[in-house]
User: What shape does this take?
Amino acid sequence: MRAENLTVPSRPLARLVRESAVVGGLAALTALASKLALPLPWTPVPATFQVAAVVFAGAAFGSRRAALAQLVYLACGFAGLPVFASWTAAGPAVLAAPSFGYLLAFPLAAWLAGALRHRWLGGLAALGVIYALGAAWLAGFFALGKAPLDLTELLWVAVVGFLPLDLAKVALAVWSAGPVRARLALPR
Assistant: This one.
């Protein structure tokens, strides 16, 4: 092989490779966080560390990368890869899962966590979006499959029971995102 045939990748190609690695890594982080699942007796939705992964992705790597990573994560699950908390819910079957609304919120939540200037506000806004879509989906899930829940029951099953642990996860994600962002010298 001649030396003139060996070229350094162009800057746009190198950037594409770097960005793809970041997005893929963040999607993998969310998939790993889903496996740290704790079943809760009052809800069909397990507590996972996905909230921390979603908020961390946005706060540390910015809204565009984080939202794209969550779309990649969801696409992997819809394609049948076992990336969701339930090993059995993958592919189209995830549409019938009680946790689908929470999953559906991840791209917007990650975007918010990265887009809002104040990282703590971004983390709390992301959590609010996750809860809003998760509760809406769960209300429909119970209405179709079981007896409908009144608002108090729905808030307990979909939000209040998760709130203390999720606030701690948001705090951990936001706290750890700052040093990572500074170390990697990432633009906002």
